[in-house]
Amino acid sequence: MPILKSDFSPTLPFKNGHFNTMYRPLFMKDTCNYLRKRVTTWDEDFIDLDFSLVGSETLVLLIHGLEGSSESKYMVSTSNFLNNKGLDTVCFNLRSCSGEDNLLLATYHSGKTEDVDFIVNHLLNSYDYKNLILIGFSLGGNLTLKYMGEYQKKLSDKIKGAIAVSVPIDIATAEVEMEKLKNKLYVEMFFKTMKNKVLEKAYKFPEFNLDKDKLFKATKFKHLEYLYTVPVFGFKSPDDYWKKASSKPYISKIDRPTILINAKDDTFLSAECYPRKEAIQSKYFFLEIPNFGGHVGFMSSFKPYENTWLEKRIARFIEENIKIKIH
Length: 327
Description:
With 327 residues, the chain is α/β, with parallel strands linked by helices. It is built from eleven helices and eight strands. Helix 10 links the parallel strand 7 (258-261) and strand 8 (285-288).
């Protein structure tokens, strides 16, 4: 598909990528009254799903980003907006992200699509929906794109398409970008909860033998991957993890309408995270690169009612490209 021209044009302060990135989590006040349902997994763990239902025949599955949850402001605002358009939503809280620690040593990572597949099949088997759409943000967007390509031959006909926002589709180069000084504050914010989770796991699973000194000194994602992701999930090295978890190699396999929206000024993303070639060569994969928007920001102004560009863009793609009518 041709690379789409974007109509996102924010007011002046929101043209700063950092300002746009931070504005949504700090100042948006959206809330949603979810109905939580706990699902027992095949490996004797649990996953918490948060539903927001309006009686639709279409269900939209939302997947949050790193250390997010159903309470992340982009999850809440998207759920509310799609509910108002007549679509049911369900937020997938990745393991350890629902407010309660999961039961196993292993939590989640950027490429853990077996959890996505399990939840998708649970939804299709347990509920009578005609259509299912996936929407992922950041890490959740990587899971979404990887799942759509990796499981392409196994996907139910009820899965009509997908939307991914602010996605580091090439993890190796995105991590190099995250190591730069411009992203130091974001990394420190992520590490506050990530380090605490790893410490809690080490306490619950003493056989894990965590090197706590190295954990306290960790300043890069690569350090946490050496200490936790690689040994717990069975990767050979961080490089092995980056290669196997990245969604970029799977994009060419996607066979139903899917869009990736990555802002040009997203400081989390490397040049490799804008898959122009893949979009041009695909019949189903769309790429939109707004000049502004930051990382899962896309805020337009200080007026709350004007800050729905992303939600409107998602709804428009569902209607125009996935071909599902909405209010």
